[in-house]
């Protein structure tokens, strides 16, 4: 018993090993904190960062929505300016000064916007004025469908009868000339809209005129060579992806609009160029835009042709052309470089559409490309690892001590 290492009574003469008392954790030196305090502090900071991030995630959409008179023209101008950077750099490579090259880009953009306005807004205004007098023809075209759905016909007839029996005051219609150019649109718009348009044009010009200096400062002010190269790569990727997407999609949409306009002209649809412009514009909105264009073409066909099947032909032609474009042409031209998850596109459409309406839906995909490019370069946040792997809550002290003892035994 005396020779056993665990004996309580050891002698000074024997070779027995004295019992080892359990080691107490060494106190941290003065001015330093222990490992447990540092772990608690790190997890506390992680929890605070998580709560602050969730709060900002819920507050930013409402701030963007309430501040749309400022954020919408600013965002639209930045997206347009980024898409025009390759044109600016091409002009600068041909020895054109930066301010003059920026002014040329802005003028070309205004000319394109003016052409689109003249070809779409003016005829659309006339169609809207024709809509009240075309309602009888639309009802005549829809009569076979209403007879086919007899229950719906009785419901509609009863509703229309009750509505017609009530006295109604005929609204006074005032003929208003449609805007024929951007200058007319500026003069007939509200002061706030005029200020927003002017602000967006100025942002585009000053962004393009100072682009070279802005990019050089963003790269040269990095503390390391690796940081400078990473910044240059991110800036170039954002410009390349955004301009490539908008340039390619614009070419595809314009071609689609011209094809639809030619098909509508062949069947005798009035103002085919306007309908082609509407198709090209709405095709910037994935999934929802083509459906809206088909519905508008169906209404236009019902207003233009006396037969129901002939009236639906414009919408059928547009749907057929869009299916070929979406499933054959766009994947062949765009390829896999700018492939985006459909779920992300739907989320971006719903978010920016809720924040800014139709302009937000038009900007949804370019903004998604910019955000995705930056996140791919900076690293996507690992929310699951932040929550469950690294931890945001403090474990029980006993559990922490047992975990450390187990790790020390395994390492020993």
What amount of the residues lies in strands?
under 5%
Termini, distance in Å?
Answer: 28 Å
Structural class: mainly alpha
Taken in chain order, the helices and strands follow as HHHHHHHHHHHHHHHH
- Computed Rg: 34 Å
Describe this structure in words.
This protein has 412 residues and is mainly alpha-helical. It has 16 helices and no strands. It has helices at residues 35-66, 68-83, 85-93, 98-148, 150-165, 182-188, 191-209, 211-220, 225-266, 272-282, 288-304, 308-311, 313-334, 342-378, 383-389, 397-411. Helix 4 packs across helix 11 (288-304) and helix 9 runs antiparallel to helix 14 (342-378). The longest helix has 51 residues, at 98-148. The radius of gyration is 34 Å and the shape is globular. The model is unreliable at 1-14, 168-175 and 392-403 (pLDDT under 50).
Offer a few descriptive terms.
single chain; mainly alpha; 76% helix
Topology:
Blueprint: H1 35-66, H2 68-83, H3 85-93, H4 98-148, H5 150-165, H6 182-188, H7 191-209, H8 211-220, H9 225-266, H10 272-282, H11 288-304, H12 308-311, H13 313-334, H14 342-378, H15 383-389, H16 397-411
Helix pairs in contact: 1-2, 1-14, 2-7, 2-14, 3-4, 4-7, 4-10, 4-11, 8-9, 9-10, 9-13, 9-14, 10-11, 11-13
């Amino acid at each position: 018993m005396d020779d056993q290492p665990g004996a309580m009574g050891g002698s000074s003469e024997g070779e027995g090993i004295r019992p080892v008392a359990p080691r107490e954790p060494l106190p941290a030196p003065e001015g330093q904190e222990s490992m447990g305090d540092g772990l608690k502090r790190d997890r506390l900071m992680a929890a605070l960062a998580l709560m602050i991030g969730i709060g900002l995630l819920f507050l930013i959409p409402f701030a963007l929505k309430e501040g749309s008179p400022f954020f919408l023209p600013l965002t639209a101008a930045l997206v347009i300016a980024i898409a025009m950077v390759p044109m600016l750099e091409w002009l600068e490579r041909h020895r054109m000064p930066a301010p003059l090259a920026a002014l040329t880009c802005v003028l070309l953009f205004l000319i394109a916007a003016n052409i689109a306005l003249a070809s779409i807004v003016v005829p659309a205004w006339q169609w809207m004025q024709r809509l009240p007098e075309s309602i009888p023809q639309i009802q005549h075209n829809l009569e076979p469908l209403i007879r086919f759905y007899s229950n719906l016909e009785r419901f509609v007839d009863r509703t229309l009868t009750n509505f017609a029996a009530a006295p109604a005051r005929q609204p006074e219609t005032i003929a208003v000339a449609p805007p024929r150019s951007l200058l007319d649109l500026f003069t007939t718009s509200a002061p706030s809209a005029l200020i927003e348009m002017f602000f967006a044009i100025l942002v585009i010009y000053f962004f393009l005129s100072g682009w070279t200096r802005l990019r050089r400062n963003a790269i040269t002010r990095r503390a390391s060579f690796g940081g400078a190269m990473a910044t240059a790569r991110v800036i170039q990727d954002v410009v390349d992806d955004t301009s490539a997407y908008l340039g390619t999609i614009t070419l595809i949409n314009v071609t689609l609009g011209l094809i639809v306009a030619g098909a509508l002209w062949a069947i005798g649809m009035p103002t085919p160029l306007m309908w082609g412009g509407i198709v090209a514009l709405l095709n910037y909105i994935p999934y929802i835009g083509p459906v809206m264009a088909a519905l508008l073409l169906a209404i236009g066909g019902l207003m233009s042709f006396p037969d129901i099947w002939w009236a639906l032909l414009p919408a059928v032609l547009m749907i057929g052309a869009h299916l070929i474009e979406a499933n054959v042409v766009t994947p062949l031209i765009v390829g896999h470089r700018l492939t985006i998850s459909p779920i992300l596109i739907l989320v971006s459409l719903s978010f920016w559409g809720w924040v800014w309406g139709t302009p937000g839906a038009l900007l949804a995909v370019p903004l998604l490309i910019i955000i995705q490019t930056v996140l791919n370069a900076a690293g996507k946040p690992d929310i699951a690892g932040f929550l469950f792997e690294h931890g945001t809550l403090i474990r029980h002290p006993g559990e922490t001590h047992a975990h450390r003892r187990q790790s020390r035994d395994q390492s020993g």
